[in-house]
Structures are given as structure tokens and as C-alpha cells.
């Protein structure tokens, strides 16, 4: 009887569900980046607050207060929270996590909040206080992200630190990583100490299938019950299978903005603004939306989704006009050199769009050399500015717009590399700093308008579409599935099964 009671919390009843992903979840360190997969960090670990698609709501925090000067955030922690090993999740555990995160502050420098925090401490077991040196508009946004402000059991840290690894992925989220086999599968089971609603799934197996065609074949054969996530299913297969009564297709609200960046660095041929304007005017975006994106993704005419606060601004330079393209090219110093357009080698959408743009630009007299790069090399090229044109994306809610513009200040993304030699760079930086330190909505609206106009005038961005996350599931196994507010938020814990 004692042994039964001891293991009773781990007894789970419900249906087993199988899905697939391109990569293993990794060690699932909540405070680090690739190869840790964001969906898994969200599944295992919880933040103080989360974004539900409309507003911020408490997750670990029951409630919170913000001081009148917007520099002190006090979080009141929910009662009786436990990590998956049964240890307490209280304000002291949160303090230990903040200490570990800030120990690796430089790694997280793309997040503006890491430069603002002057203290993060437990006032008692149920009260956590965060003090900033100045107001920061994106504080709640960045505390709700998939990483790094999610919490692991202090007992799972290495001498109070996580920057060099963890002992085990012990969180307070809905799931526990039970088993992982490299290149084969990850198995998750419910966390018996999870304080949310009881899960209907007893076991979630995520098979590792890097190839999109292999994933869809496995789904149609019945080996998989659901596919969800960015690039998990092609648009062609999504539309084809939507006609099959056995399956239910789903898609998210528009998320981040898929776009092209043209590098304005002085050592690139595209430093010439007339050439950049010629490129923007020569690209037939509507044809790309119809023939490659199949009208599933929403057309984008601005860097950020216009439904976001402060972001309803259209980019005037990003309009298809072949005559204008030729006029700008005539004014440029371009001399028939090949421009390098970098895309991810195993991404068929990027490849197809890059080829279409290569054809568009050839008609205007601009030569393009397509550079296929493996994912790690692709992001390194973004960071180093080793491109003339490259694909990029904003990150959607709750990153956009505040956290995304904050990242423009740090040499870790394509935006910094492309902008750093602009004549307007100093004004762009000062405007971003003004925005991030401001809380008055009227001033924010004005400053965002200024910033977005500066970026438009720089002629380095071509918005293509506002991404949607696609999914499909087998209706004989699954009753309903909800797509999360973030594109890497897979809410398997809310799934209803048959």
C-alpha cells in the first residue's frame, strides 16, 4: 500500500497521442537557446505571467502591482506550487532563477530588460520584487517569453547556475520529459504536480522527422495523430487535406511578419539606396502571395502586424512598380555585379520565393546569386551581415513590437547588421531608446510613427506576409486542439481527445 501511494501521483489515465517535429527537444534548459526547442521549454517551464493572445494573465503569479514610477514590479505568487520533483516553487526559487539568468546577462543582451534590472529578490516566500533602473515598456512582454524567464527547480541547477547546463529538466509546467532518443523521439508525460487542469493525454510521443514529406506521409498513414507548428505541414498539403472529412485543419491568427532585409552596410553593393529602392520596386509580392504562399498567409505592407498597438503604418517604398525600379536603378552605381541572396537550404518556401525574386530582378537588370545555407550558417550570416538580401521574420506576440525593436540595438540579428551604416542609424537608435523608456501612450504612438517612417525611408525592408501557424489533426482521435498565442506554443495540455 505504501508503494502504491508513493507512486500514485505518477499514475496517468488517458489517450496516447503521437506527433512529429524536425529536431529533438534538446536538454531543455529554460535559460538557454538552440538546440533547446522553444515549444519544449514552454511545455516544461512556466513564467510569472503569460500572454493569452489579448492580455497578460498570471501563470505563477496570482497578481502583480506596478509602482507609480513604473520601476518596481511586485508579483504575488500562487499558493502551493510545486516543481515536477515535488520541491516548492516559491519566490525564493524565482529569485534563484533570476540570479542564474542574470549571471549570463550578456547572452540575453538582446532583451532590453536584462539591461534594466537592478534587483530581483524574494521579499518572502509568496512575494517577488523586480526593480528596474528606469521604466521599460516591454517588461511584461519579455517576462512572458518562451525563454529565458521561465523557472527550473533550483535543485536541478549546477551549483546555482544554468549557463553551463542543468542536472535535469525539472519545471512546473504541464509536462515532464520522460525519455529522449537522439534522432528518433521525445516522450512527454503529464506532470503530476501541475496546478492547471487535468490533462486528457497520458503520453505524448514526438517523433523526430526532419523531412516535411516524411511527416505528412506518417500522418496520412495513421502513425501520427496531429501535426502543428511553423513549417510542420506544407501549404499544398494543408489545402489538400482540408478536403478530407477525416481530418480537421486549423490555423492561427496572423503572427510575425515574414520579410526580406536588404543590407545597407557600406561594404556591400546594396549600400546604394537607389539600388535598394530599385530592388523593392522590382519584386512582385502579390504573385508570391498567390502562387507560392497560396493565399494562406496574410499580405503584409508593414514591418509589424498593423493590429498591434502603435504599428498601423504602411511602408511606402515596398510597392511593386517596375518602371520605378528601372528609374532608381539608372540613378544607382550598380554595375551588373551579382548580389547574394541567402536562404535556408532545407526550406522549400524560401527557395521558391528566392527563385521568384531572382526572376523579378533579372527583368529589371539586377543579377542575383542564390546562396543556400544550412540553418546554423544562415543565422550566422544574418548576425555577421554576410548577405546582400536575406530572409527574416519578426517574432509575433508578445515579442512585437517592443522586444523586436530592442533587438535592433544589439549585434546579434540581421536588423543590426543591415542598419548599422545607415545615415539615419543614430536617429533610429535614439528613437528606440526613447520608446523603450516611455510609458505615455500618446508619446509612444508618435515615436513609433517616427521609427517606422525611418525604417521605411531606409529602403531595407520588404514585408511579404504575416505568418500563420498551420495544423491538422485526425478527428477520430482528437476532439479539439487550441493553437497558442505564440507560434511555438503548442497547447497539448488543453487538447480534448476521443
From TrEMBL:
CDD domains (alphabetical): PBP2_NikA
Name of the protein in its database record: Nickel ABC transporter substrate-binding protein
Domain of life, per lineage: Bacteria
Pfam (any one): SBP_bac_5
Listed GO MF terms: heme binding; nickel cation binding; peptide transmembrane transporter activity
Biological-process GO terms, alphabetical: nickel cation transport; peptide transport
Ranges for domain Solute-binding protein family: 55-413
Gene3D superfamilies attached to this UniProt entry: Dipeptide-binding Protein, Domain 3 (3.10.105.10), Periplasmic binding protein-like II (3.40.190.10)
Record-level GO cellular component terms: ATP-binding cassette (ABC) transporter complex; outer membrane-bounded periplasmic space
Originating species: Helicobacter pullorum
